[in-house]
Amino acid sequence: MKIERLPLNALRAFAEAARAESFKSAASRLGVTPGAVSRQIKQLEARLGIALFARHANGVQLNEAGRQLARDIDSGLERIAAGVTAARERAHQAPLLTLSAPPSFMQLWLLPRLAEFDAKLGGLDISLDASQSLTMPAWQGDGARLAIRYGRGPWPGVTSHRLFGDELFPVCGPSLLQQDQSLREPADLASHTLLDVGWESRQGIAFPGWREWLKAAGVGDRVTPPQRCYSLFGLALDQAIAGRGVMLANHPIAMDRLKSGILVRPFGEHYVLASPMTYDLLVPATGDAPPAVARFIEWLLAEAAAFDRETLGGKAD
User: Fold this and answer.
1) Whether CATH 3.40.190.290 fits 96-317
2) What sign for the dihedral angle of Cα 195, 230, 198, 42?
3) Cα 213 to Cα 274: distance, rounded to the nearest angstrom
4) pLDDT (0 to 100) of residue 146
5) Are strands 194-197 and 273-284 parallel, antiparallel or unpaired?
6) Residue 193 φ then ψ, to 5°
7) HEC string of the chain?
8) What is the pTM of this model?
9) What Rg do the C-alpha atoms of the chain give, in angstroms?
10) Dihedral class, residue 112 (left if φ above 0, else alpha if ψ from -120 to 50, else beta)
């Protein structure tokens, strides 16, 4: 079987351009010119024999083939990260704590708070794993593996601690509210692009999304279902911040950006959909955690409880 060897620079240029659907933005991230990004992507399209973007006078837009390749690249990057972690554990002493969590939650909620843990408690080597594996051996010596998952319990074979519940609400960039199209009530969404996140549940359950929100808001028969779907919350969030549409977000994904002002809630505190999903910390079902890991668990549960009180009022289960 012949393995196609694709130019890595072209794949990197495509991945950056796909994230923002902009050659100019990709060029800025990569430190090259938009022309160089365009040439790299044309090279990739020529090697593949397919177009990945629809090109317009005012910019570019991913086509279906481009969206699929972007999803595959995201998945591949997750596997590479997991492989690097596994290689490190084989070659060296295992990290004291390996914490697995959904990629967007890790990036947008967990990472900004870990610096506080290091400053307050520290003394713990934490390896972050963006995989969705639920392999969780019993406590062994000073090593530990924990996981944060989004879904509905019970979680078999582990002990779970609820971090917080969830609510869903529309968000967008402030610039979208300054455009000509009105966005004052849910029916106005019919004139806007709805951004969605397509991901699969490891439990085989359907996550609530735009269809459920539109129905609850009373406009399910008047607003077209989402037109653009992304593989990660972070990708959709970038598009919402850029003013390219309205995203259905939740508190842990959006709250820090709402506080900073780069995201807004067009309907304020109204039209919120309570979700049956929760974020849970999963730990081995048997044995006792090493002292340093126990301190981390205690800190994480306290941090999550504070977040729950401040943003959800402790009411979403």
Assistant:
1) yes
2) positive
3) 9
4) 87
5) unpaired
6) -80, 125
7) CCCCCCCHHHHHHHHHHHHHCCHHHHHHHHCCCHHHHHHHHHHHHHHHCCCCEEEECCEEEECHHHHHHHHHHHHHHHHHHHHHHHHHHHHCCCCCEEEECCHHHHHHHHHHHHHHHHHHCCCCCEEEECCCCCCCCCCECCECEEEEEEECCCCCCEEEEEEEEEEEEEEECHHHHCCCCCCCCHHHHHHCCEEEECCCCCCCCCCCCHHHHHHHCCCCCCCCCCCEEECCHHHHHHHHHCCCCEEEEEHHHHHHHHHHCCCECCCCCCCCEEEEEEEEEEEECCCCCCHHHHHHHHHHHHHHHHHHHHHHCCCCC
8) 0.63
9) 21
10) alpha
Q: Which residues contact 200 (CB under 8 A, 6 or more apart)?
A: none
Residue 165: partners with Cβ closer than 8 Å, 6 or more residues away: 274, 275, 277, 278, 279, 308, 312, 315, 316, 317
pLDDT score, position 161: 92
Rounded Cα distance between 90 and 305, Å, is 35
What are the residues facing 126 on neighbouring strands? 97
Low-confidence ranges of the chain (pLDDT < 50): 1-3, 92-95, 136-142, 316-317
Q: What is the CATH number of domain 8-72?
A: 1.10.10.10
User: What pLDDT is recorded for position 1?
Assistant: 34
Residue position matching structure tokens 């900004």: 112
User: How big is the chain, counted in residues?
Assistant: 317
| Domain chopping of the chain, boundaries | 8-72, 96-317
